[in-house]
């Protein structure tokens, strides 16, 4: 569905009315490739918003404390810290460049005054500590105010240094570097709910790390075929379950999702579940042993619709993103034309399918030709899991309300950037007469793609990355 | 970015006439029968089947070009390459069932050539891993920090001078064929089914890792239609640089 009918604010308290809040980034038409945003992520509280770009930089925005004298203006996000996370490297053995583009950022839950995040490029994951310094010590004994060392023999009296306030300085320092564990390109990182481990996934393997240990990782998934000629499927995304620290999920280029349990004792339960509906079977010891040799996962896959099969079927079924709901009961997958919501207890088909831009189905050949068909769109859940969001082309993004079954197409553009201006729903005309304010499919700008979006964990604030600009939208209801 | 698809409103039926089980149900340009540029002869009212074959051929050619125009200096996107290779396989399978895929080698070869229609071997050798060699990035808890891959040069200096010659021959072959783009030329592409088949596969799938060989490639770069992918770099300067590195290796 291309968009909600009509303009204006939909009636009903559940419907969200999105308004422009802020936009970050250069207005220049000429976009420097290094400035292209490649990942966006709120931290656990939503007070910090991190972006990574193709130039290997991380920019963190912090939400300002609400201003009591202006109660109607919500906290704005302003730059908190900027640092160079990854540099371009050259692999001399393969004669290949390793791009510095930040593929993913994931925050760690905050445990003390400092903030920690993981950022990764194609090959190396780094743990960054972002800390504030707003005091400095003065009155050292062994050095002058300008840092020159004093001769200890000249000191006749001792004093206690005192802390004096200084302008806030935010420092980012790399605390761990997790390198040399991925032969292929890393596409995902995910922090475990135990807050001690995390996984990193590349095209063919998934590794498990302990945050404290950089010189070893455990390989937990390996789909590399013995004979590489037989490679037909790659891993596209992976994520840990938000609450069960032994459960993670990964998606593939063939449109399958595998839910894995790292505890070997759970194999039997899953095996019994796989054999059909109904209560779990009693499994004998012999069968338990056999089950251990079977695949230790649930496989989620929707049967293909034979009537719509084409040469592009597989490509558009490739999953570009998989995210658990906050509740942990559902997961959402994004393929080229749709987002699907799956109940973790039902592998046979998704419980919901939402069309993102079905009007592109008849254009797949052209999209294959210009490589757009390989674009990897992300998706995200609203804080209450009642709404989901994903990006599209022409700087459009789509919101789906799971309760009201309504969806809307919105646009991130500078033209709609008056403060607190409501976003007008957009509509794509799929054929026949184009109505006023509609845009025809052939006029869509396929260079303006919204691949990365993020939703505040608790409030209705969204961050949308449009090439080199970051848009922040808020719900009108305060 | 305007699309080149057929005129708006051109009918797209689920199945093309006389072509059951075909894959081009959607997403393919349908030329209207009045299209004067129809290479099949331009006769109005021609059955759709020849047009389908042409379009399928065009998709195959496009896919092969895509596989070749992988980055020279940055490792190609493996997911994209695998998806394209799978698409090529599907086309080949269908063409084989049609009988339009004429393989010159004796049929005594049986299933073997079909199984190996498009090898992703070199394609996946982007990790620079050779078959049979241990390749784990990091084993279970063994401390080790050095890069694990002892890399040989992309085309294997270990006595594959012949192989290189084979690549060269195959490269020229491919480029000629793609330049001509005549229907049925794809059979020439895959006419060598024996050991040089792998060379062809390597060529098809693998400019991976930046090992263009010699004079064949510069001739190719200007003539082939490069997809407007910002990640493709067919700069001749970079090419020569890469060749230099190879030669020195």
Automatic annotation (TrEMBL), chain A:
Presence of keyword Repeat: yes
Keywords: Repeat, WD repeat
Region (Disordered): 410-431
Claim: Repeat is one of the keywords in the record: yes
Protein name: Serine/threonine-protein phosphatase 2A 55 kDa regulatory subunit B
PANTHER family linked: PROTEIN PHOSPHATASE PP2A REGULATORY SUBUNIT B
Family, as annotated: Belongs to the phosphatase 2A regulatory subunit B family.
Species of origin: Felis catus
TrEMBL record, chain B:
Region (Disordered): 1-44, 128-163
One of the Pfam families matching this protein, by short name: SERTA
Domain annotation SERTA: ranges: 52-99
PROSITE patterns: SERTA
Protein name: Cell division cycle associated 4
Organism: Felis catus (Cat)
Species lineage: Eukaryota, Metazoa, Chordata, Craniata, Vertebrata
Gene of this entry: CDCA4
């Amino acid at each position: 569905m291309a968009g909600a009918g009509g303009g204006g604010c939909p009636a009903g308290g559940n419907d969200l009315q999105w308004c422009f809040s802020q936009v970050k980034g250069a207005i220049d038409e000429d976009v420097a490739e290094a400035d292209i945003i490649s990942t966006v992520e709120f931290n656990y509280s939503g007070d910090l918003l991190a972006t990574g770009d193709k130039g290997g930089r991380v920019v963190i925005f912090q939400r300002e404390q609400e201003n009591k004298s202006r109660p109607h203006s919500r906290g704005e996000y302003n730059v908190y810290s900027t640092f160079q996370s990854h540099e371009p490297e050259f692999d001399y053995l393969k004669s290949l460049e390793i791009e510095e583009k930040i593929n993913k950022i994931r925050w760690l839950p905050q445990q003390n005054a400092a903030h920690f995040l993981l950022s990764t490029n194609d090959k190396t994951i780094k743990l960054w500590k972002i800390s504030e310094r707003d005091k400095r010590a003065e009155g050292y004994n062994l050095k002058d105010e300008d840092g020159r060392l004093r001769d200890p023999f000249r000191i006749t009296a001792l004093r206690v240094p005192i802390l004096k306030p200084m302008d806030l300085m935010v420092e980012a320092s790399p605390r761990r570097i997790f390198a040399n564990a991925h032969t292929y390109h890393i596409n995902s990182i995910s922090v475990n709910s135990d807050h001690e481990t995390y996984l990193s996934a590349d095209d063919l393997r998934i590794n498990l790390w302990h945050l404290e240990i950089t010189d070893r990782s455990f390989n937990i998934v390996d789909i590399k075929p013995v004979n590489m000629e037989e490679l037909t499927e790659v891993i596209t995304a992976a994520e840990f379950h938000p609450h069960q620290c032994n459960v993670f999920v990964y998606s593939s280029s063939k449109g399958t999702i595998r839910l894995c349990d790292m505890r070997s004792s759970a194999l039997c339960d899953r095996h019994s579940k796989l054999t059909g509906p109904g209560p779990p079977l009693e499994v004998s010891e012999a069968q338990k042993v056999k089950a251990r040799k079977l695949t230790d996962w649930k496989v989620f896959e929707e049967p293909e619709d034979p009537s719509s099969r084409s040469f592009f079927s597989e490509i558009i079924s490739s999953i570009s993103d998989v995210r658990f709901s906050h509740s942990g009961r559902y997961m959402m997958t994004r393929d080229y034309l749709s987002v699907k919501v799956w109940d973790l207890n039902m592998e046979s088909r998704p419980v919901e399918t939402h069309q993102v831009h079905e009007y592109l189905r008849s254009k797949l050949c052209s999209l294959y030709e210009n490589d757009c068909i390989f674009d990897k769109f992300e998706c995200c859940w609203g804080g209450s899991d009642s709404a989901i969001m994903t990006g599209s082309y022409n700087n459009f993004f789509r919101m789906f309300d799971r309760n009201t079954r309504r969806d809307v197409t919105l646009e991130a553009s500078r033209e709609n950037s008056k403060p607190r201006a409501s976003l007008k729903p957009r509509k794509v005309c799929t054929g026949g007469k184009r109505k006023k304010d509609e845009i025809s499919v052939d006029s869509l700008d396929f260079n303006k793609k919204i691949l990365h979006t993020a939703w505040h964990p608790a409030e209705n604030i969204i961050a949308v990355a449009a090439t080199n600009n970051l848009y922040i939208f808020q719900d009108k209801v305060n | 970015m305007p699309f080149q698809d057929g005129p708006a409103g051109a009918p797209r039926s689920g199945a093309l006439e006389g072509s059951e089980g075909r894959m081009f149900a959607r997403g393919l340009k349908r030329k209207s029968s009045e299209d004067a540029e129809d290479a099949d002869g331009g006769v109005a009212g021609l059955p759709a089947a020849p047009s389908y074959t042409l379009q399928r051929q065009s998709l195959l050619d496009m896919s092969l070009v895509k596989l070749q125009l992988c980055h020279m200096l940055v490792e190609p996107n493996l997911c994209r390459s695998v998806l394209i290779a799978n698409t090529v396989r599907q086309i080949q399978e269908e063409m084989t069932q049609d009988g339009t895929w004429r393989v010159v080698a004796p049929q005594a070869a049986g299933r073997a050539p079909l199984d190996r229609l498009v090898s992703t071997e070199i394609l996946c050798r982007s990790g620079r891993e050779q078959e049979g060699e241990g390749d784990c990035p990091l084993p279970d808890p063994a401390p080790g920090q050095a890069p694990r891959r002892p890399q040989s040069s992309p085309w294997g200096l270990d006595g594959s001078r012949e192989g290189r010659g084979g690549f060269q021959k195959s490269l020229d072959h491919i480029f000629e064929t793609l330049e001509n783009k005549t229907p049925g030329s794809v059979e020439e592409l895959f006419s060598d089914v024996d050991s040089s088949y792998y060379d062809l596969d390597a060529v098809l799938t693998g400019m991976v890792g930046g090992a263009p060989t010699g004079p064949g490639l510069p001739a190719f770069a200007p003539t082939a239609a490069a997809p407007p992918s910002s990640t493709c770099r067919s700069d001749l300067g970079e090419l020569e640089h890469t060749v230099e590195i190879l030669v020195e290796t």
